[in-house]
Amino acid sequence: MPKVGMPDIRKPQLVQATMNVIERVGLHGASISLISKEAGVSAGIINHYFGGKQGLLEETMRAILREHSRVITAALKQLPRDAHYERINAIIDGNFNGFQTESEVVKTWLAFWSYSMHDPQLYRLQRVNEKRLISHLKIELKTLVPHPQSLSVAHGIAALIDGIWLRGALNPRGIDAALARTIINDYLDKQIIYYNNL
User: Fold this and answer.
1) What would the pLDDT profile of 156-168 be if each residue is shown by its tens digit?
2) Over the chain, what HEC string results?
3) Which range marks the domain in which residue 47 is found?
4) Which residues form the HTH tetR-type domain (predicted)?
5) What CATH number does residue 100 fall under?
6) How buried is residue 137: exposed, middle or buried, by Cβ count under 10 Å (0-12/13-18/19+)?
């Protein structure tokens, strides 16, 4: 967590520099020296405000998660509260369009996922993000499938989002947002039909 007093203009600059360096050399090669050169600041500033690379990586992931949440929240605000199917699609789109598909963001996400398995703080951030996604989906599923099954369907959609995103991130052609929506909607439609005909 950045220390109080860091100029706000520096945080986005350092976050962007961190993502740029991770994109070029990967997480393990992303040294404080390379990041500070990319940002045009001294390594001492990063160490002072973030306590080193670990703290800067945490702030970078928080920034990505905040933007991710902001995009989805803004999309949901544009839709009526009872347009549950459309709101689920807004959540899907928020994972496959714009900021989330920029090369440096994708590579930082991948690094974050792998690193979070061994780092308690990054793992906590990942769990917060996962719980937020499941919560959003459950809210929208409440009138589409019977309540007891909404959690299971939410987990299914979340697994598809993560899996399709990961496959797209590792594909030289990138993430196909239209295909993602088609696959996930096919799953959702089948779940709605199945659970409403029990």
Assistant:
1) 999 999 999 999 9
2) CCCCCCCCCHHHHHHHHHHHHHHHHHHHHCCHHHHHHHHCCCHHHHHHHHCCHHHHHHHHHHHHHHHHHHHHHHHHHCCCCCCHHHHHHHHHHHHHCHHHHCHHHHHHHHHHHHHHCCCHHHHHHHHHHHHHHHHHHHHHHCCCCCHHHHHHHHHHHHHHHHHHHHHHHCCCCCCCHHHHHHHHHHHHHHHHHHHHCC
3) 10-196
4) 8-68
5) 1.10.357.10
6) buried
The count of structural domains within the chain is 1
Distance (Å, whole) CA 13 – CA 187:
40
Residue whose C-alpha is closest to residue 74's, from 84, 87, 61: 87
| Residue 56 contacts residue 6 (beta carbons within 8 Å) | no
For residues 95 and 136, the answer to whether their CB atoms sit within 8 Å is no
pLDDT tens sequence across 48-75: 888 888 899 999 999 999 999 999 999 9
Indicate the pTM of the whole model. Answer: 0.89
In a domain, 22, yes or no: yes
Residues of the chain with pLDDT under 70: 1-9
Residue 28 lies in a domain: yes
| Residue 57 CB neighbour total at 10 angstroms | 24
- What pLDDT shows up at residue 72? 96
